C-alpha cells in the first residue's frame, strides 16, 4: 500500500478575489505563505520525510512545497500533469464575470455536462492526466508520496480512487487551501481507500469553486 498525501496550495491573490486561475498564476498571499509553513509542520509531524515529493509546476504549488522541502532537506519532482484544470478564456475573470459572459456554458455545467471550461479542458481530461501521474508515482515507491497540487486535481483524484464515475467529483466539497487529502493506493488491482479528505491544517483556509 502506498500513501498518497495530496496538498492544495496556499491562499493565492486570485483566491481572495474569487478569480479563475487555471494554469495562470497570481502568487501566494502573505496568508498563503504562512499556511505553507503550517502545512509543512503538519506533514513533518505526521509523515516525516516522504519517499517521493511531487509538485505541480505552477508557482503557487511550488512555493507551497518549499517550506516542507526545506524542513526535510529534500527535493521535489515537478509534474505538469498535476496542474490545475485549463480554463483558458476564463483566466483572470471572477466567477460573476464568467457567469455573465458565458451563461450557456454555465447552464450546461450546472446540468452536469462536462464542458471544456473556457474552451480549455474538461474535468474528464483533468482526471485522466492527474490520476495517471499519481498511479505512476505510486508504482515508483512503496511508502509515502506527498503531492502539492490544486483543488480541481484533488477532487478528480479522489473520485478516481473511489471509482466514482464522472461527473461524480462534483459531489465532493471544494478543497481548502493547504488541506490534506490522503488516499491509500493499493496498486493496479484497485480497492483504494480514502483515509482523509480536505482536512484543514491552517486557520482561515479558503475553499472555492473557482479553480
Explain this structure to me?
A hairpin with a 7-residue loop joins strand 5 and strand 6. With 211 residues, the chain is an alpha/beta fold. It has a single domain, classed as Phosphoglycerate mutase-like (Rossmann fold, 3-Layer(aba) Sandwich). The model has no long low-confidence stretch (mean pLDDT 94). Strands 3-2-4-1-5-6 form a six-stranded mixed beta sheet. 38% of the residues lie in helices and 15% in strands.
CATH architecture: 3-Layer(aba) Sandwich
Summed over residues and divided by their number, the pLDDT gives a mean of 94
CATH topology: Rossmann fold
Sheet with most strands: strand arrangement: 3-2-4-1-5-6
**Total domains:** 1
Q: Tell me the β content.
A: 15-25%
Helix content: 25-40%
Count of alpha and pi helical runs? 7
Which radius of gyration do the C-alpha atoms yield? 16 Å
Instruction: Give the strand tally.
Output: 6
Full CATH superfamily name: Phosphoglycerate mutase-like
Amino acid at each position: 500500500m502506498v500513501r498518497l498525501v495530496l496538498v492544495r496550495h496556499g491562499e493565492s491573490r486570485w483566491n481572495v478575489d474569487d478569480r479563475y486561475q487555471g494554469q495562470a498564476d497570481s502568487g501566494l498571499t502573505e496568508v498563503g505563505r504562512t499556511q505553507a509553513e503550517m502545512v509543512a509542520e503538519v506533514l513533518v509531524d505526521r509523515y516525516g520525510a516522504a519517499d517521493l515529493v511531487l509538485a505541480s509546476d505552477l508557482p503557487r504549488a511550488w512555493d507551497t512545497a518549499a517550506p516542507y522541502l526545506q524542513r526535510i532537506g529534500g527535493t521535489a519532482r515537478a509534474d505538469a500533469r498535476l496542474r490545475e484544470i485549463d480554463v483558458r478564456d476564463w483566466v483572470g475573470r471572477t466567477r460573476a464575470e464568467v457567469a455573465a459572459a458565458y451563461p450557456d456554458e454555465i447552464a450546461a455545467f450546472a446540468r452536469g455536462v462536462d464542458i471544456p471550461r473556457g474552451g480549455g479542458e474538461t474535468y474528464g481530461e483533468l482526471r485522466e492526466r492527474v490520476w495517471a501521474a499519481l498511479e505512476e508515482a505510486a508504482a515508483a515507491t512503496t511508502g509515502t508520496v506527498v503531492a502539492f497540487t490544486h483543488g480541481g486535481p484533488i477532487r478528480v483524484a479522489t473520485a478516481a480512487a473511489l471509482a466514482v464515475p464522472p461527473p461524480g467529483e462534483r459531489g465532493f466539497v471544494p478543497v481548502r487551501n493547504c488541506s490534506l487529502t490522503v488516499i491509500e493506493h493499493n496498486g493496479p488491482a484497485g480497492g483504494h481507500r480514502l483515509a482523509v479528505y480536505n482536512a484543514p491544517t491552517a486557520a482561515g483556509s479558503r475553499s472555492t469553486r473557482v479553480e
